[in-house]
Amino acid sequence: MKRSVALIVAALAVAAPAFSQMPLRSLADPVKAHPDPESLFSSKDAKLNVNKQAALHIMRELLQCNQWDRAGEWLTDKYIQHNPMAASGLAGVKKYFIEVAKRKPTPTCTKLTSPVVAVQAEGDYVTVLAVREFKYADDPSLSYTSTWFDTWRFVGGKADEHWDPATLPAPVKP
Questions:
Q1: Has residue 6 been placed in a domain?
Q2: Rounded to whole angstroms, how far apart are CA atoms 174 and 171?
Q3: How far is it, in rounded angstroms, from Cα 21 to Cα 156?
Q4: If you ran DSSP here, which 8-state letter would residue 135 be given?
Q5: Domain span including residue 34
């Protein structure tokens, strides 16, 4: 038995360099958006409905249409941010999207077009799952899909804390 395991390990060690030279491709099925994403932002429970509706406004007016001058309608002043690209606080988040990311507002914003997969709410938390498309590093003409999430904790109908899977970008090589 030990000899068989040793042979398998040796074979994998020999094959590993060949596998590392192969371009990686997604093995997963494509992530599909819900056909009517706004329908996911309601609940028969009054508290969950208020929070889901606030999450809808954040997704539509802020993240999709970049109407960051309206952020105080749905975010608290202390808004705790766990995305490493933006500071906490209403002012810090607005500064990031307006001054750093240079997002320009869309004048009219009536329908959510973001590719939402699901919306889950429990207690003070709402999580939105969305399709995210990524380009392959070795061939940017090709892409694959994965799932992004945003989770908010709500206080009094406004988001008071936020999480997502964002990371800092890789350093630019000189």
A1: no
A2: 9
A3: 53
A4: E
A5: 28-163
Across the beta sheet with 116-122, the strand order is 75-81, 158-163, 143-155, 125-135, 116-122
CATH number at residue 129: 3.10.450.50
Report the distance separating Cα 140 and Cα 35, nearest Å: 27
The span from the CA of 101 to the CA of 118, in Å, is 26
Tens digits of residue pLDDT in 77-93: 999 999 888 889 999 99
pTM for this predicted structure: 0.83
Three-state SS at 172: coil
Count of domains for the chain: 1
- Tell me how far apart the alpha carbons of residues 120 and 62 are, in angstroms, rounded to a whole number: 19
Coil/strand/helix, residue 19: helix
